[in-house]
Automatic annotation (TrEMBL):
Transmembrane portions of the chain: none
Name used for this protein in its record: Sulfatase-modifying factor enzyme 1
Organism, scientific name: Amnibacterium kyonggiense
Sulfatase-modifying factor enzyme-like domain boundaries: 514-600
Coiled coil regions, renumbered to chain: none
Top-level taxon of the source organism: Bacteria
Native organism taxonomy: Bacteria, Bacillati, Actinomycetota, Actinomycetes, Micrococcales
Length: 660
């Protein structure tokens, strides 16, 4: 039997410090003459810069020799980079991963998408050139719906894609290769992806968890009309750079003097997006992009957890992106000389520069690795003519200041490029930012429980007024729990710190209440519909669970459940009331998750706590939502889709009353 293929990037890390890069994340040292085993060189993340500046000329020669040898060996075809989408991808310097139901993008009260609000919010970090509309994870697995359903069941999705494309963005759909346990369609994933991208008008596909697509998916993408862009989540090997025009520079550790991104050095038009998703300090990511002429992933909400950018890093990225967009021809076509041009005094202070020479002029991209601002003569040989600070938007003096953990752009124009004056004016008007404090968000209850006047069921379970300590359990996923980010400043979270069981004790304050012993049944909900004529704002489009009169009603949204409860003079129980009453509760058949009145929002993500578990259990991947019947203390943080997509055959509800 063949040995299973083991991806070293995904290997468990039981003995490693999660706050330090793993060996696989470290930069690669290039041997003399650039002779490196292709098994290592073709997948390197970063080629480390030597510690001694005296070695940099040799290092640059070795880099050129390595690239020439690799290209001669692999004979890359650049046809896809010459397509319209390929050319646009090469200048897509800022992209974002955006949850379809991000509250800046979706107005739940109005029931409509608001792309203009999202784009306005993203202007703080310099705006976007592209985005991935992620859709299924971490909700997928709540029932049998597959990843294609979570796109196709969204009303108006194609119109949303069109709105973003009209605003000048590249739009990517998300592909989850691990989704093998949900409803099958009879078509291959490659066929589904091409069909979906065509239906919604997407420009490309983001390859979740994958460095590269398989041959079938590559064929499907390249044979589409026009060809679809492919972006891998991690280090795309040289062999696949020709048909993967973008990739993430995710969890890439760098040398002290900034190194060179291997894939971009191999093919200048290949766009990388630097990211360490759980960081609260993004200076290293922005500096790497600045020194390499590459991009950044602006991911401020990771699967429902707020990880927003501080003012300092947002201001730095704004300035960087303006230069990159205005001077993109220099970065793509100019002669790039890594680590060239800085003065000895600057280098000694941890200030480094790279040189880009083009018909428009010479650009030096400069970074300060130090903890304090540095002022001095940055360039060893300043040009005889004009020198401008393109990051601040002014003429550069004899000495320049490079902010701590910041950047500087110096430009010696050859004449007066048309893009220069508008760039300087815009940079000069930017107020900047120096505050590196994390801009925390706190969630609030979206619908605080109200007082009820109805009569409880005779057999309802009593909840006493008390301040008990409750033990909550959950499986640690990237959604976190409440407002807590699970992996702050950590390198890649892997087992045993990923998907492991967690437990905590919380003290809560309860009022007197009674919780219905059983979920609302199909027959009871049908009586409500008959008596009131209630119809949901978005009609049910999914298969419900059992239609037996005594079965729990499913396929109902939170709003539907609240409407029923109000008709009964009741409300939904909170998660703590549900857990406290849990030992006395009964489950209808089949068992389903229960909505609670613990719906929360931090202004970006809206979620609800589900209790009780469900007989549905989707298997085949740890990325699916938890299934199976759960103990009362188990908590599931479910991100809330809109437009009826939150309705599920695996979710029902029960009601509660305040005790007199």
């Amino acid at each position: 039997m063949a040995e299973p293929i083991v991806d070293v990037d995904e290997a468990p890390v039981p003995l490693l410090d999660p706050l330090r890069p793993r060996p696989i994340d470290l930069p690669t040292v290039l041997p003399p003459a650039g002779v490196l085993d292709p098994e290592q060189g073709d997948i390197a993340k970063v080629f480390a810069a030597p510690d001694d500046p005296a070695d940099w000329p040799r290092w640059r020669a070795d880099l050129a020799a390595w690239r020439d040898a690799a290209r001669a060996r692999l004979h890359p075809d650049d046809a896809l980079y010459r397509t319209d989408r390929g050319r646009r991808a090469s200048t897509a310097f800022a992209v974002a991963l955006v949850w379809l139901w991000d509250e800046r993008l979706f107005d739940r009260a109005a029931g409509r998408f608001t792309p203009e609000r999202l784009l306005a919010a993203m202007a703080r970090t310099g705006g976007l050139d592209g985005l991935v509309l992620w859709h299924a994870y971490p909700v997928i697995g709540i029932d049998d719906r597959n990843q294609w359903d979570f796109y196709r069941d969204v009303p108006g999705l194609a119109d949303l894609v069109t709105a973003f494309r009209d605003a000048g963005l590249l739009v990517f759909v998300d592909y989850n290769p691990w989704d093998t346990g949900t409803r099958r369609t009879g078509r291959s994933d490659a066929e589904e992806l091409r069909a979906l991208a065509t239906e919604v008008g997407a420009d490309g596909v983001f390859l979740d968890t994958l460095k590269q697509a398989d041959d079938a998916l590559v064929r499907a993408a390249t044979e589409a009309d026009p060809p679809l862009l492919l972006e891998g989540e991690s280090r795309v090997p040289n062999q696949r750079v020709p048909d993967h025009q973008l990739s993430w520079a995710q969890w890439f550790a760098d040398s002290r003097a900034p190194g060179v991104l291997r894939a971009h050095w191999y093919e200048r038009r290949h766009m990388l997006h630097a990211t360490r998703r759980w960081n609260r300090d993004h200076a290293e990511e922005v500096q790497s992009a600045w020194m390499n002429g590459t991009g950044v992933l602006v991911w401020d909400t990771v699967f429902g957890v707020w990880v927003g950018w501080n003012d300092r890093d947002a201001a730095t990225l704004r300035r960087v992106l303006r230069v990159q967009r205005a001077a993109s021809r220099i970065l793509l076509e100019g002669a790039w000389t890594p680590l060239d041009g800085a003065s000895d005094a600057a280098i000694a202070a941890g200030v480094f520069a790279s040189r880009w020479e083009h018909a428009d002029g010479v650009l030096w991209t400069v970074v300060n690795r130090g903890d304090t601002d540095w002022t001095g003569r940055v360039l060893a040989q300043p040009p005889a003519g004009r020198l401008v600070d393109v990051t601040a938007g002014r003429e550069a003096g004899a000495e320049q200041t490079v902010p701590a953990h910041g950047v500087l752009g110096l430009f010696a124009p050859a004449g007066e490029p048309a893009w220069l004056a508008p760039l300087l004016a815009e940079q000069a008007a930017d107020p900047g930012g120096t505050d590196a404090t994390f801009p925390a968000r706190r969630s609030v209850l979206a619908h605080p429980p109200h007082r009820t006047a109805g009569q409880p069921d005779p057999d309802a379970v009593a909840v006493a007024e008390d301040e008990p300590e409750l033990v909550q359990t959950w499986r640690r996923r990237e959604t976190g729990i409440d407002d807590e980010a699970p992996y702050v400043e950590e390198w890649k979270p892997l087992p045993p710190r990923l998907h492991d069981p967690q437990e905590r004790t919380v003290r809560v304050r309860l009022g007197k209440a009674r919780v219905a012993r059983r979920e609302v049944s199909v027959a009871e909900f049908a009586a409500f519909l008959s008596a009131t004529g209630y119809r949901p704002a978005v009609e049910q489009r999914f298969l419900v669970g059992s239609t037996e009169p005594a079965a729990p009603v499913t396929g109902v949204s939170l709003e539907d459940a609240r409407a029923y409860a109000a008709w009964c003079g009741a409300r939904l129980p909170t998660e703590h009331e549900w857990q406290t009453a849990g030992p006395g509760l009964e489950r209808r058949v089949p068992a389903v998750w229960n909505w609670t009145e613990s719906e929360r929002t931090d202004g970006v993500t809206r979620w609800c706590v589900l209790k009780g578990g469900s007989e549905t259990r989707i298997t085949g991947s740890d990325w699916y939502v938890d299934g199976g019947v759960q103990a009362p203390g188990f908590t599931l943080k479910l991100l809330l889709p809109g437009l009826g997509v939150d309705r599920s055959p695996s979710i029902g509800f029960r009601i509660a009353w305040d005790a007199a």
